[in-house]
Amino acid sequence: MKHDPDTCLLVPSDLDRDVDPVQPMASMLFTSDNPTEPFAKAARWLAGYDSVEINVIDTSWKVFHGEDEPYGLRVYFSFGDDEED
User: Fold this and answer.
1) Residue 58: alpha-carbon gap to chain centroid
2) CB crowding 14-47: b at 16 or more within 10 Å, else e
3) How does pLDDT run along the chain (85 residues), one tens digit per residue?
4) What share of the chain is helix, strand, coil (3-state, %, to 5)?
5) From CA 39, how far away is CA 31, in angstroms rounded?
6) What value, to the nearest 5°, has the Cα angle with vertex 54 and ends 52 and 59?
7) 11, 15, 56, 65: least buried by Cβ within 10 Å?
């Protein structure tokens, strides 16, 4: 897999994976002024990475009272495994 800097997660170089196993994870927050649009935004974002394996790990939903775009969907994800290349 060729590395795209927009889809790379940084792991400290001194991390000992045998002692400190980690699964790098990132998140994106999608907001809108209506409750359905965050899901559409997330679907469009995921579709934009059809050549990169993105594993959705979890999601969370929150209403940010008093904000212009109060409806928020956070998607937690990791990128595909490089060992398959």
Assistant:
1) 9
2) eeeeeeeeeeeeeeeebbbeeeeebbebbeeeee
3) 456 666 666 667 776 767 666 667 889 999 999 999 999 999 999 888 777 788 899 999 999 999 999 999 999 998 776 454 4
4) 20, 30, 50
5) 9
6) 155
7) 65
